[in-house]
Amino acid sequence: MNQATTPRLRTVAVLGAGSAGKTTLVEALALRAGLITRAGTITDGTTLSDHEPEEIARQISLNLGVLPITWKASDGHTYDLTILDAPGFLDFVGVVDDALAAADIALVVVSAVEGVQTGTYLALEAAAAAQVPTMIVVTKEDKQRADFRRVLGELRTAFPDLPLVPLELPVAEEESFTALADVLSEQGFTYDKDGSHTVDMPDSVADEGHRLHEEVTEEIVSSDDDQLERYLSGEVPTPAELAATLARSVRDRTAVPVLIASGTTGVGIDRMADLVCELSPFIDIRNATVMAGDTEIEIAPDPAGTLLVHAFHTMADPFVGQVTLLRVLSGTLKPGDRLVNATTQTEERLPGLFRLKGKEHLPVTKAVPGQVVAAAKLTATPAGSLLCPKGGAGKDLHPHPLPTRQGVYALALEPVTQSDDDRMGAALARLTAEDRTLSVDRVGDRTVLRGLGDTHLAVALERLARIFTVNVTTSPVPIGYKETIAKPSQAEGKVKKQSGGHGQYAVVNMRVSPLPRGSGFEFVDSVVGGAIPRNYMSAVQKGITEAMASGGVHGHEIVDLRVEVYDGKAHSVDSSDMAFRTAAALGVKEALAKGGSVVLEPVSKVLVTVPSAVQGDVMGDLSTRRGRINDTVSLDNQMVRIEASVPESELTRYILDLRSLTGGRVALEIYPDRFEICPEHLVRT
């Protein structure tokens, strides 16, 4: 790519805890770059990023906010930035994964007031898992109780293996935050209504700034053998040399710069933008990587190369339908191009391309490698797809798989009207296509929507009503209890009916006994001598399975049953398939009445990953839920994974209670495992 004529491209994923100040910071950057003339506020619901009604009502980010920023940096280059403002709320971590799949750099926002929060862990761990270079910006420096040094200490304690490189110091904090000190150049920057001004390092931080300069310099040069040798021989590297070496370390993820800014006052915003541009890896030296089978290969960002496009996120628009965000990896994308989904081999036509400015669509005529654009109505292209020309070299490629985020909170849905019922299936399909962390299945005759938490599902159902005009009521998901016979018994099912003409006559004698859990149903034909003619035996078996499906004493499906039919009677005129079906079903009911019925409850395998500090609390809570601890494994970063077996009925709100217990720092996986006898005192009669 010719960087002399084409702006340098960056895709920046802005991550962090909810309320850390991400959206306000992005709004300040848009104002400073001239994208807007007046900054909106979250309170007023006027920010570019949070424009959907659900976001405005809750005053939190729920989807991916996308902004195009043109930035003239202090190095003289013009940068074309695509800002991806990701939610910080735990229920919407799937959006974070999507943003990181397209990001050149992750900018993790940490509040100078609240410090390290659960969302900070989530953001840094997600960026590390996606292998995306990372920078940290400490914001809210103008607020009461802001303390940069405390937060830096918290970061070092919470992430001891993170190679933090603080590049700035606040000259003063809280309402006095109007200046900062640059560690590399040992200069100060003051801010007033006319912007920023370079000054000498203020005396109040001169000693601290010089000490930090020495520490940071040693940290930076240690990653470059040649520069380290010259440094040890007494040669002092210039700030520009240090920045160049640091940029390589950021690219290699061996350094995480720490910056300072205030989204409210704008102090430090220009410095933050400069450093993000100058220190982040750019497209002409950082090839994209995709997978060919199990092998990772690099894709050179050549505008004249074979077209390869990564669809990394989808969203529903009430006016144009589904909008798909695309990042060009190679070639040049133009409106009207016909591309094929490399996974499904479905052909898609791109009628038009545009960039998103919040909810506004800005048409573009082409997109080159590194650019992020959007297209409407790509209904066969879910997030995580690769698009290429038909028959092109990309047909055997696929992107790196996105993290799997299992739905651990569920609600049963009931359409309000027949019209809602008719449209609910198609609307849910579109909703789950937009958000891959949502899923739909059936439990009995109920439609069940699963997601990452109560807020996740509440927002999804609001969007279902607003965008797709489908209204539903919700209820807890029914527990799939089963029944089986308690002990072996014998029974006789008899049908004898005479009402003139042909009657109904059948007798079925059977022995009924329980089977081991999970065995299902076993039918044994032990009839000899033709007591039940062969042609009626299939009807007998059908009658037994129908009786099992209709439910036992407690109304639940009967399972794990062995039925041996050993005798019976038939009539040459009055016997029929229907008579033997009915007799067999009556025999099963009588056997259950004699042998007794036990209720089986589903038990799930639960994997809980939490900080080791709360391990005891979590294990105690599992015990109160009738859970059995099967294993515990110590992990990195002072985390522990607990494996337990827990009845499904105890898990309906478990993720919500678990977040409250652990402060939200938890990963939960739930898998159906087996059935066990439900304690009698919990059986509902």
- How many strand segments? 35
Low-pLDDT sequence parts: 1-6
What is the beta-strand fraction?
25-35%
Q: What separation lies between the terminal Cα atoms?
A: 73 Å
Rg (CA only): 32 Å
Overall, the morphology is: elongated
Strand order of the largest sheet: 2-3-1-4-5-11-6
**Helicity level:** 25-40%
Mean pLDDT, all residues: 91
Structural class estimated from helices and strands: alpha+beta
What's the story with the biggest beta sheet? 7 strands, mixed
With helices defined by DSSP (H or I, 4 residues minimum), what is the helix count? 15
Question: What's the SSE blueprint?
Answer:
Blueprint: E1 8-16, H1 22-33, H2 53-58, E2 65-72, E3 78-85, H3 93-102, E4 105-111, H4 118-129, E5 134-139, H5 148-158, E6 164-166, E7 168-170, E8 179-182, E9 187-192, E10 195-200, H6 203-221, H7 225-232, H8 239-251, E11 256-260, H9 269-279, E12 288-292, E13 295-299, E14 308-317, E15 321-330, E16 338-341, E17 347-349, E18 353-357, E19 360-364, E20 372-376, E21 385-388, E22 409-415, H10 418-434, E23 439-443, E24 446-451, H11 454-466, E25 472-475, E26 482-485, E27 489-497, E28 504-514, E29 521-525, H12 534-550, E30 557-558, E31 561-569, H13 577-595, E32 597-611, H14 615-624, E33 628-634, E34 639-647, H15 654-662, E35 667-677
Parallel strand pairs: 1-3, 1-4, 4-5, 5-11, 6-11, 26-30, 29-31
Antiparallel strand pairs: 2-3, 7-8, 8-9, 9-10, 12-13, 14-15, 14-21, 15-20, 16-17, 16-21, 18-19, 22-24, 22-25, 23-24, 26-32, 27-28, 28-31, 32-34, 32-35, 33-34
